[in-house]
Amino acid sequence: MKQRGFTLIELIIVIVILGILAVTAAPKFIDIQSDAKAATLDGVIASMQTANSIVYGKSLIAGNQGVAEAGTNGPTVQVNGNPVLLNFGYPSTSNVDSNAAADWGQLLNVTDFTIAVATIDDNGAVTGSANGIVVYSGTAAPTGTANRCFAFVKNNRTASSAEGAGIIVGKVTTDC
């Protein structure tokens, strides 16, 4: 009885071809993961913009869109039965409001993300805790220029004159 099989050279050639395919395909799969994280942040940004619009509409109806945030005693609107503190008609994003992160948590209803109050500079670095809301995935909070894969919203309005002035929504995807 004659047995037929692959020769050693044929097996080595197949292993080399599989190795070449793996080396060229692996970076593409790694890029897909970071693209997916960035796309998820796009969804979070859309939710932030929608939340800003809904709350601003409610503040227009209530007539308190021109009132500045005054600590925790500032104007509020009810969203899903819970009060949301306002700053010129938009949801508060400052550490003056001890409930800002919780307010944004109920507005966004994102369970797989962590929401925190933070200071975000113009370069997307997180530097403290005062002017914005950071939404990130994972356990390590963004600090400085580390863990830079997050969405943010800043409400820097200092006057009610310009509609929407000072509302910045964006994302940082450096470390996604």
Automatic annotation (TrEMBL):
Regions crossing the membrane: 7-26
Pfam family, one: N_methyl
InterPro entries found in the cross-reference section: N_methyl_site, Pilin-like
Alphabetical keyword list: Membrane, Transmembrane, Transmembrane helix
Domain of life: Bacteria
Residues in coiled coil: none
NCBIfam families: IV_pilin_GFxxxE
Record-given protein name: Prepilin-type N-terminal cleavage/methylation domain-containing protein
Species assigned in the record: Bowmanella yangjiangensis
Species classification: Bacteria, Pseudomonadati, Pseudomonadota, Gammaproteobacteria, Alteromonadales
